[in-house]
Amino acid sequence: MPQITRTVRIGSSHGLHARPAKLFAQAAKESGIPVTIAKDAGAPVNAASILGIIALGLEQGDYVTLTADGDTADATLERLAELLTTDHDAE
């Protein structure tokens, strides 16, 4: 199965800080397939690594590219994109 990519915009008003980064990394890990996240044209990092995600320094409005490979890649990217576009700071 070919790699699938999706570009999304960060929705959390305070960016991807510890709590939303943890939710995202946990969902990526639970997907069971390799997923990466990259800011703009930067180097991709393992989406299941909370430290890698926080190191990207993602702020509200930043665009990121998600890439996944596997049978459930499309559904996985849909779920992860939903987590990234949600404003977790408004809850």
Automatic annotation (TrEMBL):
UniProt keyword annotations, A-Z: Cytoplasm, Phosphotransferase system
Primary location recorded for the protein, binned into one broad class: cytoplasm
Recorded GO CC terms: cytoplasm
Keyword DNA repair: no
Keyword Cytoplasm: yes
Residue ranges of every copy of the HPr domain listed in the record: 3-91
UniProt xrefs under InterPro entries: HPr (IPR050399), HPr-like (IPR000032), HPr-like_sf (IPR035895)
Gene Ontology BP term (one): phosphoenolpyruvate-dependent sugar phosphotransferase system
Localisation: Cytoplasm
Protein's UniProt name: HPr family phosphocarrier protein
Organism: Microbacterium enclense
